[in-house]
Amino acid sequence: MGSSRPSEWKKRAQQAVKAMKSLGISSKQSGPVLKRLLNVFDDNWALIEDENYRVLADAILDAQANGNGDPEPEEIDAFSAEGGPSTSLAAATREDYLCPPSPPPPSPRAEQHATARELAISPRADSPPQARASTRAPAKKRRKQTIDAYLQPVEEAVFLREPKPEPVDMDSRCQDVQRGEASNPGFQEQSDRNHRKISGTRNGTVQRCRNMEIPTLSVEPRINMLNNGTSSGAGNVQEAPGLDIDVASSATGEVKMSLKCSVDPSKFRMPALEAVFKMVEDKCLGSCKALPPDFSVGRLMTEICQCVLQLGTEHALEHNTQSDIVGNGSRSEDDGNRKQKAAEESLVSNGSESGLVNSTPAQQQHLALSILKTNHDVMDISKGEEEIRISIVNEFGSEKFPPSFYYIPQNVVFQNALVDMSLAKIGGEDCCADCFGNCLSAPEPCPCARETGGEYAYTPEGLLRPAFIDECVSANLFPAEHQKVFCETCPLERSRNKASPEPCRGHLARKFIKECWNKCGCNMQCGNRVVQRGITSNLKVFFTGEGTGWGLRTLDELPKGSFICEYAGEILTSAELHERAVQNMQNGTYVHPIILDAGLSSEGLLKDKEALCLDGTFYGNVGRFINHRCALARCGHFYDVFLNDSIKDEDYNISCQFIISGWNNHPPSFRCCDANLAVVPVEVETPDHHYYHLAFFTSKKVEAFEELTWDYGIDFEDKNRHVKTFECLCGSRYCRGRRRRHPRKRSIVAAAAAE
Ligand SMILES: C[S@@+](CC[C@H](N)C(=O)[O-])C[C@H]1O[C@@H](n2cnc3c(N)ncnc32)[C@H](O)[C@@H]1O
């Protein structure tokens, strides 16, 4: 039959074999399969040649996958001798081989992937007929799946080529990658599978992933990649496969990352790592103008390793902490873990000895929750509760996590607090039902501006007006200069001592912001709705390393008057707060709850339960991380401040003048204030001042990465205070809470000041 074939037939057979050769498939592999195909297709060459011999390439790979790839010697001989197909494999049908139109044949790389496939389209002649039939029946469907899977790596593949002379357009490359994803429905799924593929080793893990974000570069064939010596010989076209990354950890604590590519071993010798880094820098990164001049791939890889280690160890800590609490799993000897465990143990034991036994069920629940809930998300401590992610960072590597708490973006009632948010309570004078869009653009201020004297508290740029902030800071620092209201029977004093409460110490009549709300006709973008829209600045929780625990910093430069966040927490009655404060003292912990007493002056006589407080200890937002900084020494304390040798004479003079004559007698530039936030009462849902929000605004321009601080207003010298306080480590020159170091000097300065 072979000799009777026309030369045209032979020519076509040679071309087919040649086409397969260019894919790295030898004639020994392609010949027998071609023979089978011609038999099945009744010598219809068009079907085989279609799409650049796609059917043939696919059939060869399938044959290899099914162990039929190595032809019997007779088959090869028969083909070369006769140049025509054998009829012995006619059990396969045309349908088995045909598939919907698809892109051109895959690269040789696909060979590796083909080995993973389960398809058997050429059943052995010795299979029972039923078995063969059942194999064939779903073959078409499987064929399609196979080809889709088979073509997939081609789209995913990263081809390394020589760089083009023109600058690299990273954005358009990324778009190309994204387009690839969108145009191939299987792509995302495949990618997800690659990312999910995590297998455990003994006490270690191996994670394999394909980096889909590596852009495609143009290529020249000579580029050699790392060789694992197992390549099946892909010819001399060195198309680097999709970047396969392995990350493995061993029981001994090593973390290893590897990038894998295949190459012909005879053409490869391992280059020096520095040379590789240099080449990558020159080729791929040098043209990217955004990189800093000292950028290097070596540092980039070190960064990657460090990130792997950091994320890996943090994850382990979370896991171990939770395991310990439920009583299974073993804890590593990591220092941070031991510390955390010790802290938890002390909480537990304190709880059982004094705290938990003596506390109410609700308190017990809170203590238990605080012990259990240690699953912070380092990428976003709010776990999606805020519009913006707020990550946690510890540059010191000691305390691994901030204290446990539940993240809440808004205040919640703990138990007995009564917060009347009824719409019925909002009268026509307390809202702007007739407004539309942005109230700040209207020709006349709306009724919501009444609270702030007919002028909105916010500027059109969304900043709190400077005069408003200065007033709030001043009230905090110089309460004596501001109006105070005294209750007949102070609910706060009564919560401390019901039997014989002390006289009211007075409550400052404070300035409120009033925002538009649900009964108003304006929209959510109205300029008079800043606090209720939530956090918009980029913030980070960080470990201060200065003895003040965790703190909050801004990542943006912020002008004066910028809204940072609310202080959100549980709403407690003053009685509940008092009970909690006592518990906390017994447990050796100190929290900084805030009393919502700005409205007490207008409320008249209140029952205990009606004086409200906020506590962010167990439930809170990022506001709970804002540390205290002494804004300014108060009269009577300020001499001590200047005993510190680092304080210059001019500071001394300015501050003395300042303190003696008061805040308002000095121009703003003299109003030196070390804390950079002011806390402001904000009315949103309730028109009275019984319940309100507390919002932090910058009290001056703040640099990017600066820690955000506010003055808690603590009188560190007050021996009668009912809650335990901390020794202040704010580092401010005006610090009121630092331990005094030079008693002798103090008396000299005091004497000098008295003259
Ligand atoms: C509202 S929390 C602030 C966040 C806290 N640093 C943390 O790690 O969770 C208040 C607590 O922080 C600590 N703190 C805040 N400011 C401080 C300061 N200036 N000096 C010392 N400790 C401070 C005290 O332990 C205080 O009880």
CATH superfamily of the largest domain: SET domain
Report how far apart the termini are.
126 Å
Q: Find the count of extended strands (DSSP E, 2+ residues).
A: 21
Secondary structure tally, helices: 21
CATH class of the largest domain: Mainly Beta
* Assembly state of the chains shown: single chain
The percent range for strand residues is 5-15%
Radius of gyration: 37 Å
The CATH architecture of the largest domain: Beta Complex
Give a brief outline of the structure.
This protein is of the alpha/beta class. 35% of the residues lie in helices and 11% in strands.
3D structure, described in words:
The protein has 755 residues and is an alpha/beta fold. It has four domains: 150 residues, no CATH class; 126 residues, no CATH class; 264 residues, Beta-clip-like; 71 residues, no CATH class. Helix content is 35%, strand content 11%. The chain contains 21 helices and 21 strands. The strands form six sheets. The protein has a five-stranded mixed β-sheet, with no helix packed on it. A four-stranded antiparallel β-sheet has the order 1-2-3-4. A four-stranded mixed β-sheet has the order 7-14-16-15. β11 and β12 form a beta hairpin. The longest helix has 30 residues. The protein is elongated and about 115 Å long. The protein starts with 6 loop residues before the first helix and ends with a helix. The C terminus is likely disordered. The site of S-adenosylmethionine has 16 residues, from β12 and β18.
